[in-house]
Amino acid sequence: MEPFRQHRGTVAPLLRENIDTDQIIPKQHLKSIERTGFGAHLFSGWRFHGDGTPRPDFVLNQEHYCSASILVAGKNFGCGSSREHAAWALSEFGFRAVIAPSYADIFRTNAGNNGLLLIEMEEPLVRRIAEQAQTRPPYELTIDLEAQTIADDFGFSETFAVEAFRRHRLLYGLDEIGMTLLHEADIARFEECRHTFLQRGT
Fold first, then answer.
1. Is 126 within the bounds of a domain?
2. Total domain count for the chain?
3. Which one of 62, 72, 74, 104 has the fewest beta carbons within 10 angstroms of its own beta carbon?
4. CB hemisphere CA count around 106 (13 angstroms)
5. What pLDDT band is residue 174 in, cutting at 50, 70 and 90?
6. Between vectors from CA 55 to CA 52 and to CA 60, what angle results, nearest 5°?
7. For the chain, what is the radius of gyration of the CA atoms?
8. Structural domain contains residue 181
């Protein structure tokens, strides 16, 4: 998992409430348990017509936002089913962070496990960021996870809170496997002791 310390990127405004995981990655694309191959289908029900052609009015199909790496959305982002594919699709498409007033709990966990930073801010601030992204495209933000700040080039600067354990994992790029491997020496010692114990018992 790629560490997240500082990131500067273009903001894509998708200020809709209750964006659920089936909208993020529709169920017909859940054909693999691998983490790759889902970015192309991100928001496919909104990005494409039935014949597969892009919808020009959807934000991620517009020139200023097609390479965005920061998504700003409405409250309760990531609600619905617990599919981890939603976090995989967002990350593979190129998003490193999402800014919203609130998130579904399971999605919050899945995002953290896949290196995606979720920033929770008050609705007026989220609306302000979305408005800037709409009126000043390409609008960029700089996110500093070490300092827990978010800022633009026009005087906007705010702090944000992140759970200490989640922040640590993101800073050092530790997914669940990475966290386990931190204890590799202890695991090896346990296995050696277990092996010795089993030999004595035979």
1. yes
2. 1
3. 62
4. 11
5. confident
6. 105
7. 20
8. no
Ranges of beta strands (E only) in the chain are 6-14, 70-73, 97-100, 117-120, 140-144, 149-151, 157-159
CATH of the domain at 148: 3.20.19.10
Residues above pLDDT 90, as percent of the chain: 77
Sorted by sequence, the CB contacts under 8 Å of residue 24 that are 6+ apart come out as: 42, 43, 78, 86, 89, 90
Quote the pTM value.
0.87
Would 144 be classed as within a structural domain? yes
Angle 37-47-18 from CA coordinates, rounded to 5°: 95
Determine contact, residues 101/74, Cβ cutoff 8 Å: yes
Pairing of strands 6-14, 149-151: unpaired
Please state, in angstroms and rounded to a whole number, the distance separating the CA atoms of residues 6 and 164. 17
Bigger pLDDT: 89 or 178? 89
Q: How many residues does the chain have?
A: 202
Domain span at 19: 6-174
Token pair 């994992």 is found at 169
Helices 105-113 & 85-93, crossing angle to 10 degrees?
Answer: 50
